């Protein structure tokens, strides 16, 4: 998705959420503001906060902000194939997820119970791929490549929210199918021999990744690749409403 389109979309969501904060509706006598965090994501090096605002008796708008700083406790310390041993590989970056929800219940008891929603996720993450490569001719080269991934995801979600005592709640998203458009950019920080890319392409071919993308795809230096893939969203959040 083009950057200007994303900014326009995100601005509209923020305007709607802000406008709803000042709306006067006698039917909205329940807790309209819901703030929550995902307790599982920190294990993967990601910290995310979600804000949801009621805009009707059973509808809401929300937005999540997340930052990924490392791989967390599941850190990938090294990747090896053929004649290449990599250094630590950690993607870091941010993501923004605006969403709309419609709750099936129509009582005035709050935003709770089974809900159906639509969401959009934009994510930007990068990492340095570095290591030592030894060619078939036993020539040793230091590899350093900047890898960047930008993803845009559209999807629908099905979940359930349990309201607990004193404003606390549990929010579970158990189904979130969608599709994603991904742009992968590789930029050489230092010159890389073509043999490295040839061996990398063969390694990816052997494990089936290239066939999944495009049988004719080959990795090359300073390239940009666009891939469309299915996506899935799920998770659990703990929060407080007021």
Explained architecture:
The structure is a single chain. This protein has 242 residues and is of the alpha+beta class. The chain is 16% helix and 51% strand. The protein has three helices and twelve strands, in the order H-E-E-E-E-E-E-E-E-E-E-H-H-E-E. Strands 1-2-3-6-7-8-9-12 form an eight-stranded antiparallel beta barrel. The longest helix is centred in the N-terminal third of the chain and has 20 residues, at 3-22. The model is unreliable at 16-29 (pLDDT under 50).
Number of DSSP helices?
Answer: 3
Total DSSP E strands: 12
Order of helices and strands: HEEEEEEEEEEHHEE
Give the biggest beta sheet: 8 strands, antiparallel, barrel
User: How far from one another are the termini?
Assistant: 35 Å
Helix/strand-derived class? alpha+beta
The helicity comes to 10-25%
The main sheet orders its strands as: 1-2-3-6-7-8-9-12
Low-confidence stretches: 16-29
Bulk shape: elongated
Strand content: over 45%
What is the averaged pLDDT score? 81
- What integer value in Å does the Rg equal? 22 Å
Please give the structural blueprint.
Layout lengths: L2 H20 L10 E5 L8 E9 L4 E10 L11 E2 L2 E3 L5 E12 L9 E22 L5 E24 L4 E8 L1 E12 L5 H13 L2 H5 L10 E9 L2 E7 L1
Antiparallel strand pairs: 1-2, 1-12, 2-3, 3-6, 4-5, 5-7, 6-7, 7-8, 8-9, 8-10, 9-12, 10-11
Descriptive terms for the model:
alpha+beta; about 50% strand; elongated; 8-stranded antiparallel barrel; 3 helices; 12 strands; about 240 residues
């Amino acid at each position: 998705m083009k950057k200007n389109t994303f900014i326009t979309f995100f601005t509209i969501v923020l305007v709607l959420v802000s406008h709803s904060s000042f709306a006067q509706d006698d039917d909205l006598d329940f807790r309209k503001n819901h703030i929550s965090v995902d307790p599982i994501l920190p294990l993967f090096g990601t910290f995310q906060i979600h804000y949801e605002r009621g805009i009707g008796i059973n509808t809401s708008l929300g937005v999540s902000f997340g930052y990924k700083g490392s791989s967390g406790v599941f850190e990938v310390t090294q990747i090896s194939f053929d004649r290449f041993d990599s250094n630590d590989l950690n993607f870091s970056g941010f993501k923004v997820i605006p969403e709309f929800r419609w709750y099936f219940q129509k009582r005035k008891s709050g935003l709770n119970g089974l809900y159906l929603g639509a969401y959009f996720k934009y994510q930007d993450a990068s990492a340095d791929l570095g290591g030592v490569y030894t060619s078939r001719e036993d020539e040793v080269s230091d590899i350093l490549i900047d890898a960047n991934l930008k993803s845009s995801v559209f999807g629908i979600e099905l979940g359930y929210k349990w309201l607990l005592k004193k404003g606390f709640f549990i929010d579970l998203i158990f189904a979130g199918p969608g599709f994603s458009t991904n742009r992968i950019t590789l930029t050489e920080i230092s010159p890389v021999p073509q043999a490295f890319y040839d061996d990398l392409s063969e390694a990816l071919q052997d494990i089936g990744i290239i066939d999944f993308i495009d049988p004719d795809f080959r990795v090359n230096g300073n390239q940009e690749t666009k891939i469309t893939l299915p996506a899935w969203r799920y998770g659990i959040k703990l929060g407080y409403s007021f």
